[in-house]
Amino acid sequence: MIWTMLDTWIVVAAVLAGATCALVGSFLVLKKVSMMGDAISHSVLPGIAVAFIVTGTRSGTAMFVGAAVVGVLTAVLVHAINYYSRLEEGASMGVVFTVLFAIGLILIEQAARHVDIHPEHVLFGAVELVPLHLVQVFGFAVPRGVLMLLVVFAIDLSVIALFFKELRLATFDPELATTLGIHATYIHYMLMVLVALTTVAAFEVVGSILVIAMLIVPGATAWLLTRRLLPFLVVSVGVAVAAAVLGHIAAITVPPLFGYVDTSTAGSMATVLGCIFFVAMFCAPEQGIIARGFDVVRLRLSIGTQDVLGLLARAAERPGTDAGRLSASDLRTLRRSPFAARRVKLAAILGLLRMKGLIALRNGSYEMTVRGKEQGRQILRSHRLWERYFYDDGNVDMSELHPAADVLEHYTSARLGDDLSERFAGEYSDPQGRPIPDKE
Fold first, then answer.
1. Main-chain phi, psi angles of 115, to 5 degrees
2. For 399-426, what is each residue's pLDDT tens digit?
3. Which of 178, 183, 158 is nearest to 24 (CA)?
4. CB contact at 8 A, 236 and 219
5. Structure confidence at residue 404 (pLDDT)
6. Structural domains in the chain?
7. Phi/psi class of residue 207: alpha, beta or left (left: φ > 0; alpha: ψ in -120 to 50)?
8. What residues form DSSP beta bridges with 435?
9. CA-to-CA distance for 207 and 188, rounded, in angstroms?
10. Left, alpha or beta for 360 (phi > 0: left; psi -120 to 50: alpha)?
11. pLDDT tens-digit map of 262-300
């Protein structure tokens, strides 16, 4: 791999495009209007074309104004169609952006036919050509696209920093924001203007189609990794920057392995973004598929162990020599219990309880240890308090008490258990007359 100054400028442009899109796109993800970025990225084309027709130049200022106007118009039209036609919001977006996008392509094809505004570049971008268009800034030659993206990034960052509190309230609770005197609708349209400006600035780098990935995927990845707004924005921008750098490296190093020279950096960036998202989807510490799978297994094991201890606690109330032991009929009952239906093996449950020192195998039968008896008694207490609650306060039929209590006994916190104890202070038995164990 040969790295040149051109590669450096390409990466700088890609990084700025990704960071700028991720910054405003994060709020689209949080507001659950991700496809509004898709709608605006397509529908601003008429604004760009009209700006060129009116001014006769590709001035960044004129195109920004045209894009901002059409971006706000898109948001207004989507809301109006959604309100007056009663179409769902996704269909309203589809109607607006497809029509405006088609108009924009026609205008660009006809009005800008003799200028180097090619529809293909508008759709797919041309980040590789960014270093070829230079402007002088304080005596230094800087690519025009980099300068434009830097200005838009500074605008986005400044507006978000200045209105951070308002954006946070309007994003998560628009009604509360309005109550506090923050007009959530104005904040929404301000965000749409930023999205429109960002889209135009990113056209030259990633195009109107791939800009959607830059707007949405970093925020979607951050959604899997954090639930706090400021870290959310940092993670989103970080993902976009990493995808930009790795995307260009992949674009110039991977194709030669298969006999090709190189490939599109913008397409490679979007591909890397997708890879990062899927890695986060599987490996995120809380929201990832693997972590949630472990949570499900832990929950099933917890429910299973509590069922076994509860059954042993009931067995301890039986008279005779079998008191406190699991009999053959008890084992059959366990195999028919809910945790067995959830594919948790009884042998694994019993092994886990033995490993924790809660039960012991003596003379071919399982018995609770001292610690096991304590936990089993608490489970049985919770179960019978719930039966008392459903019978006294819920008027639940006697035959339905056990299944209902059997579910809630596994989700009863210490505080909830204390509340139940206070509610039924002085009650010493459940509706069937069986004793409710003491707390201590």
1. -120, 155
2. 888 888 888 888 888 888 888 888 888 7
3. 158
4. yes
5. 85
6. 5-220 (1.10.3470.10), 292-423 (1.10.10.10)
7. left
8. 429
9. 24
10. beta
11. 788 888 998 999 999 999 999 999 889 999 999 988 888
- Using CA atoms, how far apart are residues 206 and 266, in angstroms rounded to an integer? 5
At 279, list the tokens.
Answer: 């890695």
Q: Is residue 43 within 8 Å of residue 101, measured between CB atoms?
A: yes
**E-strand stretches of 116-173:** 134-137, 140-143
Give me the phi and psi of 367, to 5 degrees please: -130, 155
In which element (H, E) is residue 368 found?
strand 365-368
Check if the beta carbon of residue 71 is closer than 8 Å to that of residue 40: yes
Q: Quick one: which of 343, 232, 226 has its CA closest to 287?
A: 226
At residue 111, φ and ψ (nearest 5 deg) are -80, -30
CA-CA distances (angstroms) from residue 76 to 7, 25, 47, 111, 223?
A: 41, 19, 15, 26, 27
Give the tokens for residue 142.
């800087």
Strand spans (E) along 21-178: 134-137, 140-143
Rounded to whole angstroms, the Cα distance separating 179 from 172 reads 13
The helix (H) or strand (E) run that includes residue 359 is: strand 359-362
Report the alpha-carbon distance of residue 108 to residue 117 in Å, rounded. 7
Considering the chain, what percentage of its residues have pLDDT values greater than 70? Answer: 89
C-alpha closest to that of 269 among 6, 13, 1, 14: 14
pLDDT in tens, 77-124: 888 888 888 888 788 888 888 898 888 878 877 765 555 555 555 555
Measured CA to CA in angstroms, residue 241 lies from 18, 103, 236, 237, 269 at distances of 6, 33, 9, 6, 10
Question: Where are the extended beta strands (E) located within 202-284?
Answer: none
Which residues are CB-neighbours of 151 under 8 A, at least 6 positions away? 201
Count the neighbouring beta carbons within 10 Å of the beta carbon of residue 79. 16
- Region label for 323, one of left (φ > 0), alpha (ψ between -120 and 50) or beta (otherwise): beta
CA gap 56, 231 in Å, rounded: 43
CA-based max dimension of the chain? 100
Instruction: Report the Cα–Cα distance between both ends of the chain, in Å, rounded.
Output: 72
d(CA 27, CA 13) in angstroms, rounded, equals 22
- Which of 105, 98, 49, 110 has its CA nearest to residue 74? 98
Q: Residue 144 corresponds to which tokens in the numbers above?
A: 């025009």
Pairing mode of beta strands 359-362, 140-143: unpaired
